[in-house]
Amino acid sequence: MMEAKEKDNNRTILLGVYAAALVCFGLTRLVGMPIARMFDWAGYGQMRGFFCYIFTGILWIIEMGILRALIRLKLKERIFSIREGEKELLPGNRIVYITAICVLVILVISIQTGFRVKFVYDIGEKVTGYELYERIAVLLFNGLKMVWLTFLIRVVEALFPGKTGFSAYALLLLAAAPLGALDVFVFRIAFPLTYAALYLILPLIYLLVNRNHVKAFLLFLMLYTL
Asked: What is the pLDDT of residues 131-159, one digit of tens each?
């Protein structure tokens, strides 16, 4: 009885963290924007975008730190540690699948950017000093989006432990799909259809790397930024 009550309590905590993570991801920029306006004296307002991305990113890091600390404090299981089974070497067929997916994604995005590396495309050509600062901040900001995704995937996985196969993938879409929708409609990422599809692919990559969130994050970061 006590064990069932504890599981229900843990699930309530994880649901709260899940909801809070989505709110933080989608709305923190509304806090970052007025903070950025306080620095309009730098560059006569031309660096407002840069400061908005920077302060939103800083707030994101703080928010994730608080949510992670809450999980570690309230739950006995450390869901952000690498578990024993996740340390095993990947079989050859999985490496082939991952490589094929990565090559295909990078190729599709490269075609849309005129066969330029995505982060070079994002920085642009003939940008002024102020624009360069902002676009570099965007790259860091986009990297934090993948930290959010990795964080939320682990939370969802802890909510529904023991799932395998298609059911595991379907449940992980609870992490990826909402973030993808927010990225497309709130942050207005370039190539929205392509990146919406990418958010549906990333949970599959997580499963293919044997649920190792460190490996998954590095692949997420590469695909999202390149």
From this structure: 788 888 888 999 999 999 999 999 999 99
Considering only residues 205 and 85, tell me which one the structure prediction assigns the higher pLDDT. Answer: 205
Q: Is the pTM of this model over 0.85?
A: yes
Lowest average pLDDT, out of 23-27, 49-53, 93-97, 128-132, goes to 128-132
Q: Mean pLDDT, to the nearest integer, of 7-17? A: 87
Query: Hunting for tokens 């990559």 — which residue is that?
Result: 205
38 vs 223: CA distance, rounded Å: 34
DSSP the chain: -HHHHHHHHHHHHHHHHHHHHHHHHHHHHHHHHHHHHTTTTTTTTTTHHHHHHHHHHHHHHHHHHHHHHHHHHH-SS-TTSPPGGGGSPPPHHHHHHHHHHHHHHHHHHHHHTTS--HHHHHH-SS--HHHHHHHHHHHHHHHHHHHHHHHHHHHHHHHSTT--HHHHHHHHHHHHHHHHHHHHHTS--SSHHHHHHHHHHHHHHHHHTTT-HHHHHHHHHHHHH-
